[in-house]
Amino acid sequence: MARRTTPSFSSLYPASERSSKAARGASRKEGTKCELRLRRALWAMGYRYFLKIGRGLPGRPDIVFRGPRVVVFCDGDFWHGRDWPTRRRKLNAGHNPQYWVQKIERNIERDQRQTKALEDEGWVVLRYWEGDIHADVGAIARRIADVVDARRSCRRSATATTYLGEDDSHG
């Protein structure tokens, strides 16, 4: 029998049906404010990217630069465990701590697995915290642009080197 790959919270219960539904409804999976701000900044800088192509990749990246093989995730501070030791202490002091701590820890572990899977496939993975994007979207966009430009340069150099190497072996 195949090992379960999705987390099971069957023995744990959310705070209440109402709060669980509110949390699910309030947390968007795509098109978040920080993601939209970052996409607008990259677009204004002349960088073009894909959105829906990320669905076939591990973790469904928010922004995909297919040619240079760069993916970007805009990770929400709460759901992805920013400043986890402090947040964990706060959650442990709150209502239904076992549920929330396990949920966020599994999100963190899942993010690590997906990052590794993408890197194993040759992608550069860039993860930025929601709060950092809101604080200075321009700086984050410039960092992404630098990585994309560097990857494009490396790919051109590698292609040229490979081509020259093939010519040299024939000559």
Give descriptors for this structure.
171 residues, disordered C terminus, mainly alpha, three-stranded mixed sheet, 3 strands, 6 helices, elongated
Q: How is the secondary structure organized here?
A:
Elements: H1 17-26, H2 33-44, E1 63-65, E2 70-75, H3 84-93, H4 97-120, E3 124-129, H5 130-135, H6 137-170
Parallel strand pairs: 2-3
Antiparallel strand pairs: 1-2
Helix pairs in contact: 2-6, 3-4
What does the model show?
This protein has 6 helices and 3 strands, in the order ααββααβαα. Strand 1 and strand 2 form a beta hairpin. It starts with 16 loop residues before the first helix and ends with a helix. Residues 159-171 have low confidence and may be disordered. With 171 residues, the protein is mainly alpha-helical. It has a 3-stranded mixed beta sheet, with helices on both faces.
Q: Indicate the structural class.
A: mainly alpha
**Weakly predicted, low-confidence segments:** 159-171
- Major sheet size, sense and barrel closure: 3 strands, mixed
Oligomer: single chain
Mean pLDDT across the residues is 83
Q: What is the radius of gyration?
A: 20 Å
Strand content: 5-15%
Helices and strands, in N-to-C order?
Answer: HHEEHHEHH
State the helix count. Answer: 6
Across the major sheet, the strand order is 1-2-3
Share of helix, binned: 55-70%
Q: What separation lies between the terminal Cα atoms? A: 56 Å
- Gross geometry: elongated
> What is the β-strand count?
3
